[in-house]
Amino acid sequence: MAERNPGAGAFERLNQSAAALLDPLVDARLAEQPVLQARRLGEALMLCAQAAERAGVRGFSHLATLAVPHLQTLAGQGAWLPCRDAVEAWIGALIAFCAGHLPASEAGALMAALRDLPGFPAVPPQFVTLIERRLASDAERIAGLAAAGADAGLAGAGPADARRPAPAMPEAPVPVARDELDMLAQALQALADESAALLSAMPLSTHGAAEGARREWLDLVGERLRHWINAAGYIGLAPLADLVGLAVQSVIRWADQPGPVGPAADAAQRDRIVWLPGALGDFLLSMAEDRARALCRGLADPRWPVALADDQIAAAVAAITCWRLVPSRQVQAREAPITEDDLSLRVPADADPQVVDNLLRELPGLSAALADAIQAMADDPAPALADAQRAAHTLKGSANTVGIRGIATLAHQLEDLLALHARGGGGPAGDALALLEEGVDTLAEMCEAVAGQGPAPAAAFAVAGRLAAAVAELAGGDAREPEAAQPASDAPAERPASARGLAGSASDRRDPPAPLPDGDASAAPPEEARDEPLRVRAAELDRMLELASQAAMLLAQSQEELARLQDTR
User: Are residues 125 and 177 in the same domain?
Assistant: First the structure.
């Protein structure tokens, strides 16, 4: 018997939750109680947002988080009845969106209609653009789920049909440094440790794993593997990055599967995910052909929903072993001076919303990890240097994947300077350590600016110049003086294929993006001309927003249970 498409159940529940949005609006008992009606509608929106998350539709939760408090404000101020028609029209559009009837080109109208409600608070333009892109991407996903659900018998979604060809063979062996391979292997060990910690709290039972714990585990694995793919693709291991991308696609399918899953499926997921970091790490550390063959055979295992085709194993082995080992990546002074274009923080207009969304979630944690490693250098420089290099390298790769040139440029300078200090055998101290701290602080401000949590750092240009000069001095080159800003081209920047979608080839991730138009940094007023804002770490703000979202959903669930109890009296 053919397996049912795992996304179909999530799509059905999303439609049921969306249809329930009408209940508070058509309930005659609530017609004269606007505050209660708005509260009931808010509860329904948050429940629908949960169903959307389970279906992989994440833009809905952004809308719900913005809409619910404002709807309650309107009701409390007596403005509910005049706005009721507009609210009903918006809910109708939401239902059409969840049913797959709203084209991707029109999905952004959901955000526009919400902002048109009277008194709606201002939303940073960067967030508006991000949400609109996210909704357009979600509309395409919903359309795909709807088409899959309409397919006769929902057959053909089983693992046997998801066979993929081998990655493309490089034209010539790719030079890869031993220290870069070591960093990739260390990242895999960190993934294995995090995964094991979650699995220890998720015991295997006769009923399989609980849905919430399973999804948390799969989400973490998918996120860490995407980080790893970005880093591997950037240093030139495009075939290996593309091969591991098959596992990421499998993890996404597992996460979309309605739970709880049965014990057999649970055991298969555990086995494959526990196996992957070790097999990848063994290959990276040995570079042996037999380890490459074992890795490719493991990724052809039919337990993966998306697997390498059996007849493609030999070609995959040849592709991932086409490299040339060098002792260490050569750090050289920049041939061209850093310009304002190099420090642009603009997100390319054609960036894939899902990739941008992932990057915005990753930036605070990566920036905080780099800052923590720099701070630890005074006590234990050797491991702190390794941690800092790994964090800077991941930041550079992630920013290049999307095309955010400023973060990639500054992270690259920090990585080079850290590598030179590590090569010298001792940790940085005094002015050298102070410069690294200044660079990390500037990079953190850049990450916050991209996430809409603060202004672009006014000192970025000067800091980047000092970092480049330090790299040139330690590497034995001549530092170039930074150039003033030049007129930027209006042509869209070319970016790696991975920035246009997760399934794209990683073969061009190594090349940095072309110059982008100037960001807000060039227009920033002098430091003395503006008030000093309160500085809060991006990681802390990100955590606060995450907790607020979780609290909103828990509150909606609690209010629903309370309403049920009151109805039984």
Answer: no
User: Is 65 within a domain?
Assistant: yes
- Indicate the average pLDDT of the chain: 75
Query: Taking phi first (over 0 means left), then psi (-120 to 50 degrees means alpha), and beta for anything else, what does residue 114 get?
Result: alpha
Number of domains into which the chain is organized: 3
Contact in structure between 225 and 247 (CB atoms under 8 Å): yes
3-state secondary structure of 331: coil
Question: Could you tell me the CA-to-CA distances from 554 to 19, 44, 91, 94, 216 in Å, in that order?
Answer: 21, 12, 22, 22, 17
Q: Does an H or E element contain 324, and which?
A: strand 323-326
Could you tell me if 69 and 108 are in contact, meaning their C-beta atoms sit under 8 angstroms apart?
Answer: no
Mean pLDDT computed over 192-216:
72
Q: Is position 492 within any domain?
A: no
pLDDT in tens, 533-556: 444 444 444 445 445 555 555 555
Is 567 inside any structural domain?
no
**Residue 27 domain boundaries:** 6-152
What CATH number did the domain enclosing 414 receive?
Answer: 1.20.120.160
**Calculated CA dihedral for residues 546, 547, 553, 555, nearest 10 degrees:** -160
DSSP 8-state class, residue 453: S
3-class state of residue 326 by DSSP = strand
The pTM (predicted TM-score) of the whole model is 0.45
Q: CA 444, 449, 455, 458 torsion: positive or negative?
A: positive
* Claim to verify: residue 251 and residue 357 sit in the same structural domain: no
